[in-house]
Specification:
alpha/beta, 3-stranded antiparallel sheet, 36% helix, 10-stranded mixed sheet, 19 strands, 513 residues, 15 helices
């Protein structure tokens, strides 16, 4: 049994973490986290809906008919720093010696295709003019210009782009100004989350960047408001200290720092379920900060979001009517079958084979539990080889089958059968989610009740040269939403435009011209 010292208990109190929570996490380290068991890939007609144009048009009408009666919000995870986006350029600054060879010779010697592409198309980057004006007096030869250009972009005493959050970097060049992802999300929100010309957005950001986002809103907000005739309500939150997780030694004892305090590490992306849980809206759209487009694609993008939201509202109306019936406990055998069929066909709920052997009262309780859950409608794009999560049917330890978004790290790579299922998957999760977070009485669900803690990740790290184990919470759209009712819909590839590396800004969806 772990014994906590008075110093430990004081530390827990300051972080807002209970002793029981830490003990549960230590128990997770001891037990380990099992791999997710894939049953089969979700494909079109078996877990993924492919809508006709006529159906999409009806769903857009449904959304536009009802959205004025609802509170809508866009929720944008935006705490990621841009350092990984510039990995190849940081590597260049670290290893290139301007005194010993030319930049071109360096690129040729290492066969660095990313760097070659960057310099070949350098004038297409939205920050080109910004950087060029700053180095014009510093640089000498053409070779120097390339080196000085990257230095001016990234070094701490220069533009320091690697320090900034990705959401505040120049992404799109419109001539008179450059737009950040933050600004593009404002524009996009005006197209499908505005109600009576007012749009709400919530960004999860790092505490150190709060003032930077405020400054950006002062500049971009009025510009977008004028162009879209939309008033914006923008709020922010940070990942909570109380979502940090205990680090342990390889013997599963709390890892102690040199000062005797316990080491806690950020719980990762999954901690944001607490931030999402605090938002007050009927419908919440979730989209990552770097997934934006230039204006020529905005109409098609907004239409896709309205389709997903229209489908959510259509299904939610039926679910609410059935939930009301169940709440009254006035159900005939025929209605019970009807509700079960709705759950299976519309919300992808699967029941144990033994369901029919239960008593009527037991079946009703199961139906109540299954239907009274938050609903998520998730866009899925055809797999183009991007890393990350995908849609699968999974089977849990209790033989329950459900539709989930699964990361490759959750799958046992040594199991050939599981890897075959992974290779046969057809679609990818672009983090394009519309959430219904209220029940049939209009009460907001406590989203923390629908998290599967067994879908987290244990990783090995080092601290002061010592090995330790770290626990990442279930990711926001994976285990953190494991017990939601889930609908997957095929959406256009256009809806997925992340900027993982700086060269992604060269893609057509990020080039205004």
């Amino acid at each position: 049994m772990i014994e906590f010292s008075p110093m430990d208990l004081q530390q827990l109190q300051e972080k807002g973490i209970s002793k029981e929570k830490v003990l549960d996490q230590i128990e997770t380290f001891k037990e380990g986290i099992p791999f997710v068991r894939l049953e089969k890939a979700a494909i079109v007609s078996d877990g993924i809906i492919k809508l006709t144009k006529a159906r999409e048009k009806k769903l857009v009408s449904k959304f536009e008919e009802l959205n004025r009666l609802l509170s809508l919000m866009k929720f944008v995870p935006a705490s990621g720093a841009a350092s990984r986006m510039f990995k190849s350029l940081f590597n260049f600054l670290e290893h290139y010696d301007p005194g010993s060879e030319s930049v071109d010779a360096y690129i040729e010697r290492l066969n660095d295709t990313d760097l070659k592409t960057f310099f070949k198309q350098i004038k297409k980057f939205p920050f080109y003019d910004i950087v060029q004006k700053r180095i014009i007096k510093k640089a000498g030869s053409g070779n120097d210009i390339k080196y000085f250009f990257v230095s001016e972009m990234l070094l701490e005493d220069c533009l320091n782009y690697g320090f900034y959050p990705k959401g505040l970097l120049p992404f799109h060049d419109y001539g008179k100004f450059t737009a950040t992802p933050f600004e593009e999300h404002l524009k996009e929100a005006s197209a499908y989350t505005a109600v009576n010309n007012k749009a709400k957005l919530h960004f999860t950001i790092s505490e150190q960047h709060h003032s930077f986002f405020n400054e950006e809103f002062k500049i971009a907000g009025p510009r977008v408001s004028k162009a879209t005739k939309t008033e914006f309500e923008v709020t922010y939150s940070n990942q909570k200290a109380s979502t940090d997780t205990i680090a342990v030694t390889l013997d599963n004892e709390p890892f102690k720092k040199d000062d005797g305090s316990m080491l806690f590490r950020p719980g990762g992306h999954g901690a944001l379920i607490e931030n999402l849980n605090e938002q007050n809206a009927d419908i919440i759209f979730i989209k990552n900060i770097d997934n934006v487009v230039v204006p020529k694609h905005e109409v098609e993008l907004a239409t896709s979001k309205k389709v997903l939201a229209g489908l959510l509202l259509e299904v939610q109306q039926k679910a609410f009517a059935y939930a009301y019936q169940l709440d009254r406990n006035d159900i005939t055998g025929e209605q019970l079958h009807e509700i079960k069929t709705f759950l299976e066909n519309d919300l992808n709920v699967r029941f144990l084979d033994s369901f029919s052997s239960f008593s009527i009262s037991e079946q009703l309780e199961i139906l109540k539990d299954k239907i009274n859950r938050p609903i998520r409608v998730c866009g899925m794009v055809k797999n183009e080889g991007e890393p990350g999560g995908g849609p699968f049917w999974i089977r849990d330890a209790h033989d329950h089958i459900s539709l989930q978004i699964v990361e490759s790290a959750q799958i046992d790579s040594s199991d050939e059968g599981q890897m075959t299922i992974l290779r046969n998957s057809t679609h990818f999760n672009p983090v394009d989610i519309v959430c219904g977070v209220r029940n049939f009485m209009g009460e907001k669900y406590n989203l923390l009740n629908f998290v599967d803690p067994k879908q987290g990740f244990i990783t090995l790290k080092t601290q002061d040269g010592k090995e330790l184990k770290s626990l990442k919470l279930p990711r926001l759209w994976n285990g953190a939403m494991a017990f939601w009712n889930t609908i997957f819909v095929e959406v256009p590839l256009l809806t997925f435009n992340p900027v993982k590396t700086v060269n992604d800004l060269l893609k057509p969806t990020h080039q205004p011209a």
